[in-house]
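Subject: sequence -> structure tokens, single chain

Hey, anyone have a minute? Need the predicted structure for the following. Not urgent.
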Amino acid sequence: MPLDAYLAKYFRANKAVGSKDRRVICDTLYTMIRWQGLIDAQIDKPTSWEKRLDAYPTFRENISHFPKHIQVSFPKFLYTLLNDAYPDRADTLCQALNTPAPTTTRANLLKTSQEELLKVFPEAIPTSHSKTGLTFKKKINFFASPAFKAGHFEIQDEASQLVATHVKAAPGDHVLDFCAGAGGKTLAIAPQMQGQGQLYLYDIRSHALLEAKKRLKRAGVQNAQILDDDKLKKLKGKMDWVLVDAPCSGTGTLRRNPDMKWKITPEMIERLVKTQREIFETALDYVKPGGTIVYATCSILPCENQDQIVYFQKHFNLKTKEPAFQSLPAVGEMDGFFSQSLVS
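Reply:
Had a minute. Here:
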């Protein structure tokens, strides 16, 4: 079970745990899991959570004698991949991925603006690159906010917002979000279409699409529909834009899911690269002549990003439409994402 889901389940079953204690438990556990590799290098085997907790107060002291991957608490193979890709900044990236992620919201331009939302949350600051985002230094119970209930904003990382801007859909266009999930990027694309044209959401995870349906309603998006397999087949060759937000290693967002760092394996990445190619080839069938397909991930590994673009160009006779977008995680800033638009 993912760590956030496990903690949510634990707190539901232990309602007597107060808010301050919950915060301490969450902060301590997330930090221990982020730095588990370094902590485990300092305790006797076999490891246990009791031993890790005993080592926790001083685990960052006197660590210079450990290998680099242990100092930054990353699996050796994953650190090697990052060091090969970013030899001058691998350690900085790992350190950033071991810090808490900022909380960022995206203003729903169908109902409000970045400026208006800043009046509701004066403690926030506008995002550096996205024209719709606000960043918060402290966590807030957004779900209880009247502005959230009214559909004025969604929680979405700035890099994810910027990926959505690469789908430059105009009013009247037809857009397919092929791996839509809970619809975050569809929601970001919708305002530029001004209620004209059609947005289509497809995903093999039906539970995610149920959440997308709720979010679309709250946001006031009326020109969107969720597809099943039968409806999807009828759209081949008809889309102006297809977004493939492909399943990936999530290496650009590991600070949000620190337990995933210890579950990634070379075999998993190999499988993901193969799956990404298969999904892209399937999604390509839905692009009409002259249309655009946008490939995106929340990975920072070249094998899932730049190398895939080279593969798509070679095997499907595609050309890049504009420079690729890539962000790399930094302390207090956006996550690591990648996107590239391609045309035939």
